[in-house]
Structure formats: C-alpha cells, structure tokens
Amino acid sequence: MGLKHSKQMAKEALAKKVMAATQTGLPICDRPYQVIAEQVGTTEDELLDIMQDMSSQGLIRRIGLVPNHYALGYRFNLMTVWDVDDSEILHLGQQVGQLNFVSHCYQRPRKAPDWNYNLFAMVHGRSEDDVAQQVETIQQLLGPACRDMAQLNSLKILKKTGLRIR
Amino acid sequence: MELSNQDRDLLNAVQKDFPLHPQPFKVLSDQLDIPEQEIIERLNAFQQSNAISRFGAVFDHQRAGASTLAALAVPEHEIEHVAESINALKEVNHNYQREHEFNLWFVINACNQAEVDSVLTHIAAEFDYPLLDLPMEKGYHIDLGFPLW
To answer: A148, B51, B108, B109: which could form a disulfide with A83 (CB 3.0–4.6 Å)?
Structure first.
C-alpha cells in the first residue's frame, strides 16, 4: 500500500469518527473541540481542520444547538402538505421555507392517485390558534397556485432516534 | 419554560455558525457582549432542563447516505403491530402516527439508495398496505435552525 493511499484511508477513518463524535454532541465547556479531539485521538488543530473541510464540502450543514421546541413552549406542531403548481413551486417553496415558524420545507414527488401533494412544510406554534393562523398564512402565500392541501396532525411518536453513521 | 429576550438571543445565536475556533464561546462572548463563562453556564442550564435537544454538528444526510420519507395506510387495529415491525428496522429513525388515511409516517436512512430500496421492498413484502415512497426532491428549508420568537 502506498504512503499516500494509507494516509487517505487514515483521514477517512478519522472523518467517520469525527462525524460520530460530533453529532452525538459537543460538550458545552471552554474548549469543546479539545475534548472531542482527545476522544477521537487527534489534535485540536487537526480536528478543526477536518470539520472546516466537512463544512466547506457541505457535509456538515451547520454546527450549533437544536432546540427542544416542545420544552421551549412550542407544543403544537403540524405537518402540512400542499399540491402546488409545478411551474411555481420553486419560488413559492423558497418563500414558504423562509417563514419563521416553518422548521422544514421540502419538495417531494406526487404519487397519483394516492398522493397528490408535492410540498411539505412542518410548522410549530405555542397554541392551536397559532398553528391555524400559520396554515392560513401559507395558504394565502400560495394563492391560486395551490390546488389542495392537507394537515397531518401527529397522534403519537412511535420512534425517534438520532441518526447513526456507520 | 419561559424565555427572557436575552435567552432567546443566545439560543438563536448558537443555532448556526457556531465558531470553529479553539475557544468558540469566547468568540460568541465578543459577538454577544455576554461574558464567556455566563454563556457556558446558561447553555449548560438549558441542556440540563432539557430545552436543548442536541448541541453539535448537523450533517447533510443526503450526502452522508440516502434517505426517504415513507408512509403506510394501515387499518386502525393493525397500527401497533405494524409500527412494532417498522420500528425494529435499524434504518428507520423516525416514526409518527398521523391523522390521515396514510397514518404511519417514517424516515428511512441508509448508506446508499440500494439499501433504502431494499428496506422498502422488505416492508412492501411484509405488509400488503398502500405504501408511499417520497424522497426529497428539493429542500427549501433544511434544518438550518429555527428562530425562536
């Protein structure tokens, strides 16, 4: 095995370890990266370099905290789905995605005849009225480009686990 | 939990662009004009009171592997039994019961598309219910943080 090749392999193995360690969580202390570097067996500088690379490549989307919406008082959430005109979904999707109460907004395929919605928006609010108002706001924003919509209230969380990188 | 305006500003500031710097909280301290140790103490308190789900790196799972959102239309009395089988699959990491004809909604994550497809095939073979495979075609707001207001 060439030196260059083995270096590359070591780098990839380290990158995987870094992914596993940093998505479980960074410690909230003076030198969080130092703590992770020790866990994965590298230096703080090298860890910062690797994470910088992953960020520029888009593999790390962001570094920061994920709030617990529920504990912070946003107890009502709703998956809303919309049948939006294909010729308008690009600019309308972007506008819906920018609404401050929308946490996720995706375009997904229709599956006729069972499923005719192509835009998904997850909304969060402090009350049922909040959420009803948010749905109204999206409805108005989409206007005549929207043919139909549905609200899929969640009845039960059956499974929720963090992602494992293997 | 009630948030003060300062709490909200702090939580919003730490949702994205957390500094890749040996002393990230010091960088934030300069930006927010709050002492470094106070930031660390308050964030730890938030974490202990469960107001933070997670603090770390959020990866682009489309790049890190393959995924899809799937839904099944299951008769009401079969829901628990079906959910149990679905939850047992290691590739499934979210599963919600929702109010709709398609009442079981779950996310499948795997290393590549072939593995995602094989999980779908497995589910379709095990349960003879309408199944939707709705992979993301475009993201208009992919978990870039959620501004608290």
So the answer is: A148
pLDDT band at residue A43, thresholds of 50, 70 and 90? very high
The reported pLDDT for the residue numbered B16 is 76
Predicted local confidence at residue A164, as pLDDT: 42
d(CA B120, CA B133) in angstroms, rounded, equals 8
Q: Residue A116 sits in which domain range?
A: 76-153
Q: Is residue A162 part of a domain?
A: no
Answer whether residue A7 is part of any domain: yes
- B96 and B88 Cβ atoms separated by less than 8 Å: no
Kindly state whether residues A104 and A136 are assigned to the same domain.
yes
Check the CA dihedral B65-A163-A24-B55 and report its sign.
Answer: positive
Number of domains within chain A? 2
* Contacting B residues, span 77-116, partner chain A, CB-CB under 8 Å: 83, 86-87, 90, 92-100, 102-106, 109, 111
Q: Which CATH architecture has domain B61-134?
A: 2-Layer Sandwich (3.30)
CATH code (residue A117)? 3.30.70.3460
Least confident range of A55-64, A155-164, B20-29, B128-137: A155-164
SS (H, E, C) A125-158: ECCHHHHHHHHHHHHHHHHHHEEEEEEEEEEEEE
What contacts A23, CB < 8 A, 6 or more positions away? A162, A163, A165, B54, B56, B57, B58, B59
Residue A123, both tokens: 């909304």
List the single residue in A59, A93, A166 with the smallest CB-CB distance to B138.
A93
More confident residue, B12 or B24: B24
Element (H, E) at A36: helix A32-40
| Residue in B with minimal Cα distance to A91 | B140
